[in-house]
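Data deposition worksheet. Section B asks for the primary sequence of the deposited chain exactly as it was used as input, without tags or linkers unless they were present during the calculation. Section C holds the resulting structure in token form. Section D is free text for depositor observations; keep each observation to a single sentence. Incomplete worksheets are returned to the depositor.
Section A, Depositor: J.P.
Section B:
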Amino acid sequence: MWRAYDPDRGWAPYVGDSPHTDHIHFSFSWDGALKKTSWWTGRPVNPDGSSSTGPVVPQLREYPVLRKGDTGKDVALVQKALGLPADGAFGQRTFWHVANFHQKQGLPVTGVVDKAMWQRLVDLNKVAPRGTMTKSAYAYRKTWIKMGSQGNAVKALQAKLGGLTGDGRFGPMTKAKVIEFQRSKRTTANGVVGPRTWALLLGLPAPQAPPHTVPPRGPPPRGRAVLDAGGQRTASTRTPTPSAAKRLPRTASTPRSARSNALTTGAEPAATATSTNHAILF
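Section C:
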């Protein structure tokens, strides 16, 4: 089913009392918009416009309030939405799952399927809207909208802000209202509505903005620690340049004269210096 009044949903399976598998509805005039067609009145109309004597089509009413002990198709609808076997009997298991849904969604935990729970199920796309019900602002809590945006998300925003024409167009007046609200909540006032602004509008826990960090000034430190013979840190040093490395003292050296004597006599040259007690790591 594709709904012209809610195009953001796209194609979706129909859920309701009547599956509408044996007929289809079309409205090519303002009568449909003004609720004068058979879909709204429940009485078929002849091609010449006169009322038909055919049977009255039952109308889809608002979702009923359901409590423990109730039975029927609407109970089965709730059970299916909650991932339960849809036997249509509101028993103890259904009661606990309804109460758990209330707790998770921040609703009053009553175990009763009331109007607020039906609305939340609609907003979560668990059930289809019925009667005059439409999606609330909660359904768009993760949607980003800004100047120039259009659609049902903007309508929901305008209704939540109040004092605006709900035309679904994000214009200068809507942006001014958003900035005014953002300033009142001491958050970034840029006129862009994202998850944080939606949460503040709905009274939900607002996502925390990432902390602002100041990068350190100057280049990062160079070099490694200087360790002594026991592996203990003694100091820090910069990485020596090639020219500086040439000036580092040798840890062991043999005089040139000793090397010459070894070549002529065959004796092992004696070291005249020992290694120092520290090492430099790079």
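Section D:
Confidence is low (pLDDT under 50) at residues 262-282.
Residues 73-123 form one domain.
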